[in-house]
Amino acid sequence: MTDAALPTTPSRPSPARPPRLRLQIHDAPGRIDAAAWDALLAASPAPTPFLRHAFLAALHASGSACAATGWQPVFMTLADENAAGVLRAGAALYLKSHSYGEYVFDWAWADAWERAGQRYYPKLLGAVPFTPVPGSRLLARDAEARAALLAAIEAFARDQGLSSAHLLFLDEADRAAATAQGWLLREGVQFHWTNRQPEPYADFADFLAHLSRDKRKKIQQERRYVREAGIAFDVRRGAEIAEADWDFFARCYDNTYREHRSTPYLSRAFWAEMARTLPEHWLMFVARRGTERVAASLIAIDPERRVAWGRYWGCTEPVAHLHFAACYHAPLDWCVRERFLRFEGGAQGEHKMARGLLPVTTTSAHWLRHPGFADAVARFLAQESAGVEAYVGELRERNPFRS
User: Fold this and answer.
1) Which CATH fold topology does 2-187+361-397 show?
2) How far is Cα 78 from Cα 93, in angstroms, rounded to an integer?
3) Number of H helices, E strands in the chain
């Protein structure tokens, strides 16, 4: 951990900074007080379980996201010197030696910059590793602290001679702060399900009844096919998920990566930490044929805010339509029963619309040190943004719900 003064001559005009704030840079999340970090997260506009101290510490301690895997932590905190232990702002930041596990793709930027004879990596990244979930990234108790934190991030990137800094899947407060400080904004598309308001769906059949006939029929056929294959689901929540369930899920998760000739991002040690430290945020669907388990999906949940996130899946044998049943139909059925407000389906995938999820835009923010490079990326983003807007408009015309 290192202490540093906030920059007194930022590259762009920014709000005045409270003189009592002390900037610290931490080389591991475990060096930050867990209660102080989680209190800061709770005070932020859009907290998610993925920025809980236990989640971030498990990523690092398990070897899933650490310097050896290309994720070198440089977490930042701003503390009030007059209130010991109270954080005013903080950000989970990493020096990245590649762009894997981010879901906002800048490979073309890296290629162009390195073709120009420059060094793109390491870059500075503010994100939750391997987790494309929108939420607060600049954890802050107020707008003033948020602006000070963003200025400190930019100053650090500049002082270290880094090519760029990036903040992924921002909430509205972060977006406003980034816009005010001149960062470039980039839009993406995800697919989310929202419960009907003010009267939630009575049951899954009620949800299906609101879909267009062809979409409703498609889901019914997929569920019937899985059922006729002899597949049923066991649902485990929180502490109900036994170690044997975690073992089976980890096997399925690893299989998914092996089938794509890739290496799993998350280790078995990480899942063990989730079972130990954050059991209340997990929901598991285990598919079985008789007594034989054949697949599992793992859903993250926030019981207080009634939000669920489709996150991980895997199987031990292929069964037609089982992926849709385990990752969408069964979780949505559960969300309807539990009166959850939203289910986020993760990155990409137009096929999710046929299961009742609708397109939403996501935002990332980018700072590039070289003015010429920044101008070129800004022109690219203007064109890309117009394309994203047209794409979302086209998708919304294909609304799966009955008019």
Assistant:
1) Aminopeptidase (3.40.630)
2) 14
3) 12, 16
